[in-house]
Request: fold
Amino acid sequence: MTSPDSALRAPADAAHVLARCRDVVRPALTEAVGRMHPWVGEMAAYSFGWCEVGGTPAVASGGKGVRQALAVLGAEAAGAPGRAGVPAAVAVELVHTFSLLHDDIMDGDAARRRRPTVWKAYGTGPAVLAGDALFALAVETLAAGPGGPQGVRVLSVALGDLVRGQADDLLFAGRPWTGPSRVRPEQYRTMAEHKTGALLGCAAALGALLGGAAPSLVDALDRAGRHLGIAFQIVDDVLGIWGDPAVTGKPVYGDLRERKKTYPVLAALDSGGRAVRRLATLLDTGEDPEEAAALIETAGGRSAAMAEARRHLAAVEAALADAALDARAVDDLRALLEYLVRRDV
Ligand code: GRG
Reply:
């Protein structure tokens, strides 16, 4: 899939930005995880991709580290050194890991990042406990840092939104495809802002806060991250239907087979076109996902999704343009934007 905005910077730059920020954060993250109960700490280290079950060094790699990078870049955007954002980076990375861990339990997912999920590898009870411990460590890290109570307040807003987004996402699964109770595209947007955007925005905002930024700059970065989260989630949905499985690591038409309420599907169903009834039948039964994908495209679901992603990327740009940010940090933020909406490369 091509980028919604080809004017953005090349993805190779993003890899460099992510690696640079990871290097800044890693000592503090390792130190924080090292303070955990050893058994719980092993599960945390397994989640980060640092070790295998039993604590042997990992063969796998971890996540992209987008949130920790946003926190470091948030501090830099405020004119401070990236290291000023480290407590924020550690906190958001711990929260992200915790939320994935619990999400995998709720969804019953057996694999993440191409290996068994924590609950599969260690059992559900231990995995719940590891998630709880990561959550507690995140709050402790932030409270002990220079952001103090204000930092914890910013994080709390994001945590509340994460719960809201997850609740809506879980409830969406039980809603019909058509009729007055169907999920509307705007309801999806709210869900995505909460579930994905809130923590991205919080990461950049907290980094800026620790970097000494004015409230208007902190707010601008939070807004940018929230719009980025919506765009990121919608692009993820498009890749989930039309992406190359060899590149995305997702099974072909996996989201359609799992009957997920993704943006292209909801936009197609909302179009009121002639294909809607047939599409709803196919989605209900999970049959012939290839025909379903073609109907979604014909009904305009794919183009509506990309247009929506573009709209939110423009809103990210507007939020960044509104704030007086360090130019080099903005360049790096742009590289990350490009990376997040072009994950086929
Ligand atoms: C905050 C109290 C509290 C509870 C959390 C479980 C839950 C409630 C929320 C789930 C949130 C969730 C799983 C959001 C998905 C966000 C998302 C887009 C994840 C994938 O992000 P990437 O691509 O992942 O950055 P990597 O693997 O690179 O780290």
